What does this fold into?
Amino acid sequence: MNGWSHHLIVAPILIPLIASALLLFIDERPRVAKAMVSLASAILPTVIAFILFRIESGPNGFEGVYLVGNWSAPFGIVLVLDGLSAMMLLLTALLAVSALVFSLARWHAVGAHFHSMFQLLLMGVNGAFLTGDLFNLFVFFEVMLAASYGLLLHGSGPLRVKAGMHYIAINLVAALLFLIGVSLIYGTAGTLNMADLAARIPEIEPDRRMLMEAGAGILGVVFLIKAGMWPLCFWLPTAYSAASAPVAGIFAIMSKLGIYVILRLTMLLFGEGPSAGFGAPVLLYGGMATLIFGIVGVLASQALGRLAGFSVLVSSGTLLMVLGINDGAVSSGALLYLVSSTLTISAFFMLIELVERGQDAGANVLAVTMEAYGEADDEPENEKEGVTMPGTMAVLGICFAACGILLSGLPPLSGFVAKFAMLSAMMGTGSIGVPPTAAIWALVVLVILSGIAALISMTRVGIRTFWSSIEGTVPRVLVIEIVPVMFLLALTLALTVRAGPAMQYMDTTIRTLSKPSIYIHAVNNALPIKGVKAGTEGE
Amino acid sequence: MELVLSIAIGIMTSCGVWLILRPRTYQVIIGLSLLSYAVNLFIFGVGGVKANVPPILGNDDPSILADPVPQALVLTAIVIGFATTALFLVVLLASRGLTGSDHVDGRNEPK
It folds into this structure.
């Protein structure tokens, strides 16, 4: 990676930032112009993320360190691109394009500045995936959260304002915890650069190490709130089901951002050395509790939005558990599961809105969780004519069935491949080669149970919606609304067909992650560009 | 000096925690503000408490300098905290307008 292509690393942050600023200058009226700018700036990073992904999966792999401001690490801020961040960037970009196209049908018009906030959210998410500095991570996290506050409230209504207020309050407290964690780590280790921190951990004296671990623990709580680990997850189903469909679709990546940071930091800081395995039991048992809570929630929820919200928890719980056992082969299965479940949940959130559009809210009076529901009537009707989808019910039904198959992990789609990869590695047919312990057995049982719960719940809802609908009304669905959903589901199909190369990529990624020295070496050896004076850094 | 600082942080944190657990939105936002002051002081404290020393490296002995990094962190944290608090205030007002109540769940407590 040299010459101009080196600067591609910073593009996924810069493009959304510039686009969001540009969009502020365009009046709300000519929506087409706004939409075009926004769409262009979502597609361009997709292309760039794809190029970066190809470079990463190429033969010479990991060397993407970008020195912002041309200061060498650890003094300046670095952006680091490795296999994991390249994959997450691509995933974010694909979700963003889908959610944005979906929103163009009507959702982007129900409130002001949708596109600006959407682009800022992308900037924050991309930045958090790329950064190699803890405080910079905080800044990108806040950018993402500030945008997400606005997006959650997009469309307004009492339900969204209430859910939004809880969401904001919780995340403000989380931001304060973030600061406490970061400052404790700085106070004990004297650095905030992740690579430098990982290199310094063995040198910290034992009495200061405890403080450092306390700081890391507090920092971990923040990401666990984002990922939705029980008991920090009660806000999540309400907030996600209250959000408008395209917003919930892109929010699916935010809970995975929490998982990403935990994976990154545990592998880098606590992979080896004296603090090895710090926090692993918390992840394991916390993940189990989350999964149980998610299963109960999935079975209990009547409204589709809440069902999807609890599916996020099931996915987070599974991933946290697997991170807790911290085994290479299982983790690479988990990465595949992460990609597959994110695509599924995002598609599901958007599909729900289309399915529910046809239903009379009164037909669901019996629904247990009415408070998360009944908002469909508040949205202004779309007067614009568009191309409606022929054979609507058939297409919606097929997409719904695909989501059900993916969520429950049945063959032939990628949900099955991912779960199979995880389970077979856990059962010892993978690289471990040791008989599974009681905790592993509990884990296997829970993963299978979560699949059954999703299957039961999806079947029940599917029958009620598609087969025994009292009204018999057919929702009016535009092509540009169903195409993103089908696109995301097609990606999971592609992931199934290309499961071999995908698993290989995940394996390589996990192998690189499990050797922190590679990361540390790459960051410390990145040289500033000669002949260019290092810029002065602002705050 | 360290004692005064830590007691101040402790008092503000405990008041803040108590307030954010209260049911009224106004109390929650005051609690959040108090917590953020406490956290800002805390960040300031981790760099070591020193008086009358410059943070900028000159020809002096580095051991007597104040650590500039926590100061930069505090500055960023204040800016971000300020913006998010303002945003929360707006949501608070919107909630008050929509529900007619300043309860965090948007309803009045059962009589």
Observations:
- The CA atoms of residues 74 and 110 of chain B lie 42 Å apart.
- Chain B has one domain: 2-51+65-99.
- Chain B has three helices and no strands.
